[in-house]
Amino acid sequence: MKKSIIAVMLGLVCVGAQASSFHGPDKAFLAQAEAVGVTQQNWDSGKNAKLTMQHAWRFTHHYVLEKGEYVHHLGEASGLDLTKLAALDVDGVHPMDVIIRDRLNQEALVILKDGKLVDEYYFNGLSQSSTHLQMSVTKSFTSMTLATLVAEGKVDMNAPITTYLPELKSSPAFANATVQQVADMRSGIKIEAEPDKSWDERMTIVQDWNGVNTTHPELESVLDFASLLNARSDVATGEAYDYQCINTEMLGLIVSRVTGRPLAEELEARLWKKVGFEQDAKLMANAKGEAVGSGGLNATPRDVARMMDVVINGGKNRAGEQVVPKAFIDNLLAGTQEAKAAWKLGPESQLAPNAWYQDQLRVFNHDGHTFIAFVGIHGQVTVGEPATGVVIHMNGAQEQTQATRTVAITFLDVIPTLLKAAARS
């Protein structure tokens, strides 16, 4: 069945006129990058982040996601002077522009209020029309695409994941998990991580993240990798929050399985053509056409901010069309008891005890604010506060991923400060 699904996907993506088009790596760009020592094998290392985050899609196969006819115009900036705000770092308090640009290695900051532009800042050559790798912010887009299928009655979140991916019935881990538990990162899978990494490299190898897979030819799909995973012995399925990218890839495969189309096409049709984006995006994939649903989206900062604006606007775009199901957002903001209890068993609860992870998004309660967040490993952060209508998007290119210092500065100081300032603007 695995090979037939891939064949169907390839048959669809190769016909570029029908939907999102599929492309190989940018060979001219690869040659240029290799001349200065950046290759397909090392482009994603932290030390190269400030060089490659704006060009990540060029290193891999990728889809082009076309925007729709409707564009949500943000208007002219009303203005927010970062030099009049401040945040704390190791060596004391600094102006907010210094913290964001120099201390957090952010390359963009976009702030909206009620769908209108408050202000925007770009660094390191980034511009309004430049795409930037969003890394795990992609997870939220994959989940929201799935949510539209749930609303149509095509997917039951409480069903075993094997209902849609029967190949996982032999998996010691996934065989016992529901779709909802997978979406909440509560699947109970055990990942044997490489030193200094939080993932098993076999997953990125089968995704052709660093060139075409030659070391594990027996793995033709991320589903092959997922079926090999063991279950954790210290917790029961559904009990603990454990952030693992392969969970998201299974959600992306469910989208493909129930629709008969690649994730990229469904994401384009259900989100990219409806939200009101102003630019096309790129979604990275392997050579067989399997999109990287956990971290492959390359989009402009303004467009990611537009996506969060839809979320905090009850799922509607600014033309009044329901894009993301309202029930999905209401349930997210309420949080389930299971998701809240599971969060407390994860490491992030040490910094944010009053938060939870549900359906591939985070909800934080801190310093009088309740906000939803999309989060990426190199400092990509998008937050939206429903009570004030404020959206903040930052595109990081941080060398050290998930560092305690940068995460703490961002979520405990910078975000609350910007939310207060933007709400008053």
TrEMBL record:
Residues 1-19 form the signal peptide. InterPro entries: Beta-lactam-related, Beta-lactam/transpept-like, Diverse_Enzym_Activities. One of its GO terms (molecular function) is hydrolase activity. Its EC number is 3.-.-.-. Keywords: Hydrolase, Signal. PANTHER family: BETA-LACTAMASE-RELATED, BETA-LACTAMASE-RELATED DOMAIN-CONTAINING PROTEIN. Residues 108-399 form the Beta-lactamase-related domain. Pfam families: Beta-lactamase. This is Serine hydrolase domain-containing protein.
